[in-house]
Design a protein that fits this description.
The structure holds two protein chains of two kinds.
Chain A: H1 23-43, H2 58-127, H3 133-144
Chain B: H1 2-42, H2 45-61, H3 72-93, H4 106-109, H5 120-138, H6 142-152, H7 158-165, H8 169-187
Helix pairs in contact in B: 1-2, 1-3, 2-3, 3-7, 5-8, 6-8, 7-8
Classes of the chains: A mainly alpha, B mainly alpha.
Chain lengths: 145, 191
Amino acid sequence: MSWKKDTADGTRPNSPIDAESDPVLERALHDFRANAHAWSQAAYGQPRAQVHVARSGWRPAAAWALGCALAAGSLSGAFYAHHQRAAMAARLALRERTAQQQQLTAQQQRAADEDLLATVDSDISREVPAAMEPLAQLMDEDAAR
Amino acid sequence: MAAGTAVKPMTAESAEEIAAREFARVVENHRPQIFRFLLASTRDLDLAETLTQECFLKAYRNWGRFRGESSAMTWLMRIAINLQKDHWRNRRMQFWRHTRTNAVDLDEASEWLPSGERTAEQKMLARERVQQVWKAMEGLSERQRTVFLLRYVEDQELSDIAHSTGLSEGTVKAHLSRALGKVRAELRGKP
């Protein structure tokens, strides 16, 4: 069996490569051609058995485990974030409520103080005589005299 | 008039029939060669079978546009080369997918040798040589491999290879020379 398409003078037409000058290479190419032809001839037209794609066990298991871990991580992360937000909101609400209460208490205190001062003012103005009243009386008496 | 209207569809039908017969002949003549090229190129029986079927399906769809400027074989080979190129490109794009390859290993690929009048030692040496060529093929670029296979497995002329691959003859020669250089280096144990 020859792999060459021999011409009348035994040379390969259009052969640009020096495969013929290297007997080892030529022999290898000859065998390779024979191998490719024999293999394809044997395989050609053979009924092909349905290939059952056997999935190796650890790959889907690893994929599932990774997926579950990611889902759990995302869920716990979301839950933690939500919890943190709720706690912060509660803290803020408490602070606001306290501030409001303090403001109310201060307001009430201020009102009570003002009432007390008003009461004290009115009481004192009624009981204490005018500071210059005796002198005024003396001056009136002198003038009459 | 009535006769004319009756004849026209029959003519069209027979033209279709002729084209179908011609195409069936083309399939019969060239299918083994296309399959062989794709098998040697991919080392994957299922993939070679699938691509061969796709090649002839594509050829059937475009059969009307084949004007016979080149031989049917060259035209079919061009389709097969493009399909193979598309396949590898798609595969590269799907790197994130778990794609399963059915490519046989070098040992299995080099098992097939015609049972001639050879001694056991000669057979072993031949198998070893074939294995080395397969191994060298792995190191070739897609174009070098295609050109190499078309030349040394399919025995195609340089002009036909140039036509099938869409390269100039000079480029084909250059690819072939590089491919042979790599095969030679592998045979000498200097990959």
